[in-house]
Amino acid sequence: MDPALVSLTLRTLVCFQKYREYKKTKKSRKRLWMKPWLQKKDRSVYHKLIAETRVDDGSVFYDFHRMNRQNFDVLLNLVAPLIQKETTQLRDTISAPERLSLTLRYLATGETRRSLGFQYRISHSLITYIIPEVCSAIYSVLKDMYLKLPSTSEEWKQVTSDFYNSWNFPMCIGAMDGKRFFMRKPENTGSEYYDYKSRHSMIMLALVDAHYKFMYVDVGAQGRSSDASVWDRCKLREYLEKEKLQVPPPDTLPFSDQKVPYVIVGDDAFPLKNYLMKPYPGQNLSVEQRIYNYRLSRARRISENAFGILVAKFRVFEKPIHSSPANTRKIIFATVVLHNFLRNNSRQLKNENIGNGLENHGLQSLDNVGRRPAKNALATRDIFKDYFNGRGRVRWQEDAALLN
């Protein structure tokens, strides 16, 4: 027999024997179902710190979740049926209160999944599934109550009354604004969310009432979309132009015989329409036009402030969101309904720093878009201008307008 062939056969047999021994050793090893530190749930931040602060220190509980114990319990009762899992024979499931606490902590701080995993003693891979699921549940149970447009003429008139009494702008049915929420580049999306600022973002349009609450939001437009096209595809625009929202017909301005339509106030990112007022453009404006711009800005900034409150409350937006586009939408929708929920039910509302520094907190304003307005929209704006300089004048407007 050829010696080379004999040597090859022997080496093959030796290798096969070693492989069989390796497989036998591997089968005999005990595989850990869960890492030891994850099994010690009773030492997690939820079972230690949160359990203590729930009883002894409500302010710490509030700072940790951005809501008090009463609102936490109300929210828990609503979402528990949607997020509670059944316990199996192999392991105990994570409870609904713990899932809600973890998600609120993420929204309040924007901490990484690994950081939250160490605190709650939950694997970061499981946290990746928990947060979107709880955000979906929050939006599902709160949207019908806390995120809705007025459905009758009387409800629209109440919004108008609030704007007139609080911000001295009559016939106003809401303040409109749009922001770009920054994201880390989503996988397999190419340049879909890549915007003109060389960042990845998702666009949100919002209509806000006089009390900083969101009445309508449109979330999900890709960052590469132009600001003009976002408004053109917005359902709110379609419903307004087709008169599907039960907005009252044109009426007279207070203490005047001038009749104007009910309007939304916005900035230069939106087109001038008969139902949407924006400032006079340019620098060389008359005193009357500058006063109009000030009065409109005073009402319009409510939408800017609402975004400021949202970011101050939910600091997940302080830096780009690291999640898929679908989960990013869930996060944004959840924070919007939570914002309205807390505006209605919390006494610890802090409006400081609203509307300031949003460029440094993961949000960016939409760019101004130049468009040619219709003649009737120009006429409506002139009527408001004349009104603010006549019957609708307030004593401080000249000084405020000339300072801006």
Brief account:
The chain is an alpha/beta fold and 404 residues long. 51% of the residues lie in helices and 10% in strands.
Question: How is this structure best described in words?
Answer:
This protein is an alpha/beta fold. Strands 1, 2, 3, 6, 7 and 8 form a 6-stranded mixed beta sheet that branches. A hairpin with a 6-residue loop joins strand 4 (251-252) and strand 5 (259-260). It starts with a helix and ends with a helix. The chain has 2 domains: 36-145, no CATH class; 153-403, no CATH class. It has helices spanning 3-28, 36-39, 46-56, 58-65, 69-83, 96-109, 113-120, 124-146, 153-167, 227-232, 235-241, 287-313, 325-345, 375-388, 397-403; strands at residues 172-183, 200-208, 214-222, 251-252, 259-260, 263-265, 276-277, 363-365.
Sum up the structure in keywords:
two-stranded antiparallel ribbon; 51% helix; 2 domains; 404 residues; alpha/beta; 15 helices; six-stranded mixed sheet
Please specify the SSE layout and strand pairing:
Elements: H1 3-28, H2 36-39, H3 46-56, H4 58-65, H5 69-83, H6 96-109, H7 113-120, H8 124-146, H9 153-167, E1 172-183, E2 200-208, E3 214-222, H10 227-232, H11 235-241, E4 251-252, E5 259-260, E6 263-265, E7 276-277, H12 287-313, H13 325-345, E8 363-365, H14 375-388, H15 397-403
Parallel strand pairs: 1-6, 6-7
Antiparallel strand pairs: 1-2, 1-8, 2-3, 4-5
Helix pairs in contact: 3-4, 5-6, 5-8, 6-8, 7-8, 8-13, 12-14, 12-15
